[in-house]
Amino acid sequence: MMWQWIVSPSLFAVYMVMAKDTSVNSPEESLPFYCVFCNCKMTRNGIITDCSGKGLLIPPTNIDNRTSELYLSKNLISVVRYSQIPGLFNLNILDLSKNKISSIEIGAFRDLTSLTHLYLNGQRITRGLFILQNVFLPGVFTGLVSLKVLHVHNCLTRTEAFTSRIPSEALKELTRLEKLRIDGVVNVTFNEDFHLLKNLSTVVMSGYDGVCTIGYLSRDSFVGLEHLKNLTINKCSIEEIGKGTFWWTQKLEYLDMSWNSELEIYNFGKCLEELKNTSLKILKINAIHDPNRAGTEILRPNLKYLRDINLTEMYMDDNGIEFIDYGVFSMFPNTLKQLYLRRNKLNFGLYLDEAIFNNPNLESLDAGDQELVIRSELSLTHLFGGFNSRHRRSVRVTDLMSFDRVKRSDTNPRLNLKSLICTGSMSRIQLIDFTSTVNNLTFIDLSRNFIPKIQSNAFKGLYALRHLNLSENYIENVMDSAFNGLDSVEILDLRNNLLGFKLRLDVSGNLFSPLVKLRSLNVSRNRITTLGKRVFKFISNLETLDLSDNYIENLDIEMSPLLRLRVLDLHMNRLQSVPSSVRTYLSDLSQYHSVSVDLSSNKLLCNCNNIPFLKWLFRSKVKFENIENYYCSFNDNTVRVFNDTGSEILEQLEKDCKSYLGIIVGSSTGTGIMIAFLVSYLIYSNRWNLRYVYYMAKVKLDSNGGNVGTRDECFPYDVFISYGDGDRSFVVGEMLQNLEDVGGKRLNIRDRDFELEK
Q: Where are the transmembrane segments (predicted)?
């Protein structure tokens, strides 16, 4: 068997060296020898051969007929001939994309009877023009009786798109074709030849990954696509849709006209009358207005035929919509389940109530990422040309606060709405009242608006809600009963608000008490300095708590109710340590399940007093996220990053603090002994004075109490006579007689009154 490649010289040399060393004892001995050069894989369905990006100038010949998939993209192939790919009856996928193919031999694919996918997109020829009808001549696709997917897009330049036309003579042989991806030529026409393609259900013409300069759609554009179900013609510079354009596509279920920014809703609205005769389910008209122009308004006449189309999904993103007339959402079909209004310029108000309560079958309303721009009435892009009094509206966006709420079609509506997203207006909004409704709302995102205060029972009626996002709303105050009725909420996002003062005052945990099923709470970036000690008392099911990016200096909170806590994010605060009660609780909790704590970007201290905290940091079972980026400050104001040396820092700190401990203990002991000795000496040397003071104090107390009898019992003598032996006769004679007999005093005379052993 002869093998022939034409490759660049350098790659050919590499191939020759490798071919000589082809192993006979390879684990996959059945693979052909050229797999040394290409990537091959044996599968149950055959050999997958990938020769992409090998610098090939022509396709290989004599490829093994067991090949089921052949990838030749990103090469330099310019011509495709039958002699290069004969006998590949089992081939299912052939990828010739991103080459320089300018010519395909008639009948080149005639042996590829099993081929289902053919990719010829992305051709870039260096000489001449790539004209669709000249490259894809009649008979080029002969033999492709099983082909289902054909890609021939991204081959034209904008100049070539003006001279090319859809090669219907070549394509009409692909009777099994289901999907066609092709460049959009000017005044595109799928003629009667496409009636033969009864399986063709999807046509894609897009300026995103190809060239599309259609400009104008007419009655003849889709005349042969009577079996079409999915049509994408986005970013194709379409400015106008003629009458009867969609007359032939009555089986159409999906239509994407997005990013035709000159089309505008007014022009598109004209064709809605024809689309009501189709089976359309999904309609995408994103960015059919230039979103960078002045704001767009949508009036009721623009969509008057919409209610007659059984749509289930509608996309109107990126249209710069600033005003929606009252009554527009009442014209939407009852079958609508998903409505998208992302990245417009809407102020959430009256129209939002109308969209929700007048479309009870709606399951998802996504009006996220609004970019509100305040404009005057005259700056709006009016859809009917000149602005006059006939078109002046009675309801304005700026008048929203003067209305109570839109009149509902049902006073107690049953809503199918499950997801509500209204984000990014950066303006004040009024929360929708769901009190009297029966609803299935599980997800609400109201982030990036302006809701400074949340009143009591603000979310009453949302009994099925599980995820509530109120982030970036400048919320300063939340009433204690604001979350009443939200006992099903599992995720609450309050990040980037102003709740620091409120959370500091909540010492009893009343704020979050209704959220008994809460699993995730985010209060990051809320200017929190201190938390109420029992602020998380009633949310025992909490698993993730995010307190990051605040000003917390002391985490003195009661953690014991948080029995299921797994993630505690404290990064970017001002913590120097963590209280022992919190450390103990988290360590105990880690015995039962994993616990993750993030303390990065805090001002941790490395000193002797903080050693217990550092031990916990390095030796507990708690997992510390990003610990290699932790840093701490020493007493000498030096700062060290933990990196891989965190444990070494702790060991050195323990060693240094241990030496100081001996000195402190010794000095304290010596000082204590000296003080005890000095006190003992002073007491002993002043024992009589102290005794005298004691007795005198006792006498004074007794006298103040009037207890005379007790005093006499304590002192039987009035006078104690101290005398020498020479004065004995005077004392016993004259003094004793005069003082006792005459004066009535009791004398204590040692020769008479002293008793032994006393």
A: 660-684
Query: Does the structure show a pLDDT above 90 at 10?
Result: no
- Residue 239 structure tokens: 């400015």
Of 340, 332, 282, 341, residue with least CA distance to 312: 282
Query: DSSP string covering 672-735, please?
Result: HHHHHHHHHHHHHHTHHHHHHHHHHHHHHHHHHTT-HHHHHHH---SEEE---GGGHHHIIIII
Residues 6+ apart with CB under 8 A from 547: 523, 524, 528, 531, 568, 569, 570, 573
Give the residue from 316, 310, 406, 323 showing the smallest Cα distance to 361.
310
- For the residues of 520-555, what is the DSSP string, one character each? EEE--SS--S---TTTTTT-TT--EEE--SS--S--
Q: Which two tokens stand for residue 460?
A: 């009453």
Per-residue pLDDT tens for 35-89? Answer: 888 999 999 999 999 999 999 998 877 899 999 999 999 999 999 999 999 999 9
pLDDT bucket at 686, cuts 50 / 70 / 90:
confident
Residue 689: both structure tokens together: 């004075």
Tell me whether residue 34 is exposed, middle or buried, using C-beta atoms within 10 angstroms of its C-beta: 0 to 12, 13 to 18, 19 or more.
buried
Q: For 322, list phi and psi in degrees, rounded to 5.
A: -115, -20
Instruction: Tell me the helices (H) and strands (E) count for the chain, helix number first.
Output: 16, 36
> Chain-wide mean pLDDT for the chain?
86
Pairing state between β 149-152 and 117-119: parallel
Q: What confidence tier does 408 reach under pLDDT thresholds 50, 70, 90?
A: low
Return the SS3 of 217: strand
* Dist. CA 598–CA 329, nearest whole Å: 47
Whether the per-residue pLDDT at 132 is higher than 50: the answer is yes
Mean local confidence (pLDDT), 539-564? 96
Q: Where are the domains of the chain?
A: 716-758
Q: Which tokens hold the place of 421? A: 């997203």
List, in order, residues 6 or more apart from 453 with CB less than 8 Å away.
475, 476, 477, 478, 479
The token pair at 690 is 């102290």
d(CA 717, CA 482): 85
**Separation between Cα atoms, residue 398 and residue 411, nearest integer Å:** 26
Q: What is the pTM of this model?
A: 0.79
Nearest Cα residue to 361 out of 440, 264, 268, 442: 440
Nearest alpha carbon to residue 753 among 717, 725, 727, 726: 717
List 64's β-bridge partners, or say none: none
d(CA 346, CA 358): 19
